[in-house]
Amino acid sequence: MSAQPAPTQQNQVELRMAARALGRAGLAHAYGHCSVRLDADHFLVCAAKPMGLIQPGEDGVVVPVNGDLPEGVLGEVRIHQQIYRRRADIRAVMRSMPAQVMALSAARLTPHARHGMGTYFQPGIPLWDDVQLLRSDEQASRLADLFGEGKALVMRGNGAIVAGASLVEALTLTWYLEDAARIELLIRSAGLVDVPALSAEACAERATNSGRIYERMWDYLTAGDPEATVLNT
């Protein structure tokens, strides 16, 4: 394992901004956490408190990808470890509690690709069909296996996991996931569940990251953040 890296100010500020954005957007409440990869062997996880309440200057904690969780780090951060361990392409992981996603998951359902923002989750969104809190390495390992090569996983009655190539992408995809759940609930409540979902081909064509797609959502969700000016100085 490489020596533990020292997070930069940008690492800490961006992670705090992402955490607060999840809280402001109603995508997390008292529970949830987010992280960003530092190198092949370490990642930085946000402070162990409600993400919307993390204050400027309140640093996250460096966690090994392989090894015990540091003291004070929340137990479900094991999920982050297991995903980073399997996926070298993943640079950020978010554990959130989106309300519409939660409602669908209580019925053992996850959103289908029915509109533009729902196309980003191919080949689909798996369901972790267990309402119990995830507090062991064995559980986290099985969840990461189920997560597979996708970008999101829904936990029945217990929120969601989203991962991306950056904090910007992971934050955007968390918002997209909740919007896909909103559309799914509307379609089902209107009795239109038999309407086909978008094809894999249509999804592949639509799920672009060009045109500052992710960056514009980051700007929207972090607007007014008390540390936004730090990144521009």
Please tell me about this protein's structure.
With 233 residues, this protein is of the alpha+beta class. It has a single domain (9-222), classed as L-fuculose-1-phosphate Aldolase, CATH 3.40.225.10. It has helices spanning 9-24, 78-86, 99-106, 137-147, 167-189, 200-206, 213-222, and strands spanning 33-39, 42-45, 61-64, 92-96, 127-128, 152-155, 160-164. A seven-stranded mixed sheet has the order 3-2-1-4-7-6-5, sandwiched between helices. Strand 1 and strand 2 (42-45) form a beta hairpin. Helix 1 packs parallel to helix 5, helix 2 crosses helix 4 and helix 5 crosses helix 7 (213-222). The protein is globular, with a radius of gyration of 17 Å. The mean pLDDT is 96.
* Number of distinct beta strands: 7
Any idea how many domains?
Answer: 1
Please, what is the CATH homologous superfamily? Class II aldolase/adducin N-terminal domain
Would you list the SSEs in sequence order as H and E?
Answer: HEEEHEHEHEEHHH
- CATH structural architecture: 3-Layer(aba) Sandwich
Mean pLDDT: 96
CATH class label:
Alpha Beta
SS-derived structural category: alpha+beta
Rg from C-alpha positions?
17 Å
Helix coverage percent of residues? 25-40%
Tally of individual helices: 7
Distance between the termini: 34 Å
Low-confidence stretches: none
Question: Which percent band covers the strand fraction?
Answer: 5-15%
- Multimer state: single chain
Principal-axes shape call: globular
- CATH-defined topology: L-fuculose-1-phosphate Aldolase
Neighbour order of strands in the largest sheet:
3-2-1-4-7-6-5
The major β-sheet equals: 7 strands, mixed
